[in-house]
Amino acid sequence: MRTRGKIPQRKPKIVVRSLCAGATRGTLTYGNLTFPCALGRSGRRSIKREGDGATPIGRLAIHRAHYRPDRLLRPAGGGGVPISPLRPSDGWCDAPTDRNYNRPVRHPYPASAEHMWRSDRLYDVVLVLGYNLKPRIAGRGSAIFMHATAPGMKPTEGCIALEPQHLRRLVSALRKHTVLDIPR
């Protein structure tokens, strides 16, 4: 029996794998692109907590991209992922008891909030991942991004990090509705 109408389209998917749950490095695959990546200092976890250093397991949307306009031109492509410049006052609240927990804020901010305008170049290009955004649950983790690696591919605080050239290549290849899958 044949159905009428549109054939369901699969969403484009980025897959991040590692050898074991505790591994701090893995491989990111998107279509024909494959890059090494750094993961959280505590590996991957299905139940994430604020400050545990783990990369959350699950399927995450890519909400938007930001870049440092004083260091880079607007990244090419992005295929439907909104891309906007960072400003020196941009921050991201990581205080579980604050009403803006796991949301962008402006510095100076009265509660604990990460600075997005960083001198270490990790956030020259940064993708905001859809972890603990809707609904937000206090203490379940905040500021889960995809960003550039620290020298030596050091583990992150729970994010996914790529070499800067690989991150820019990935952003240029992204298509609308791309999801990020971090399997068990």
Mean pLDDT over the residues: 93
Query: Which CATH C-level class is it?
Result: Mainly Beta
User: Helix- and strand-based class?
Assistant: mainly beta
Uncertain ranges: none
What would you say the CATH architecture is?
Beta Barrel
- End-to-end separation: 36 Å
Question: Gyration radius, to the nearest Å?
Answer: 17 Å
Shape: globular
Total domain modules:
1
Strands, total number: 14
In CATH, the homologous superfamily goes by the name L,D-transpeptidase catalytic domain-like
Helix content: under 10%
Describe the structure.
By secondary structure, the chain is mainly beta. It has a single domain, classed as L,D-transpeptidase catalytic domain-like (Beta Barrel). Helix content is 5%, strand content 33%. It has 1 helix and 14 strands. Strands 1, 2, 3, 6, 7, 11, 12, 13 and 14 form a 9-stranded mixed β-sheet that branches. A 3-stranded antiparallel β-sheet has the order 9-8-10, with no helix packed on it. Strands 4-5 form a two-stranded parallel ribbon. A hairpin with a 2-residue loop joins strand 2 and strand 3. The radius of gyration is 17 Å and the shape is globular. The model has no long low-confidence stretch (mean pLDDT 93).
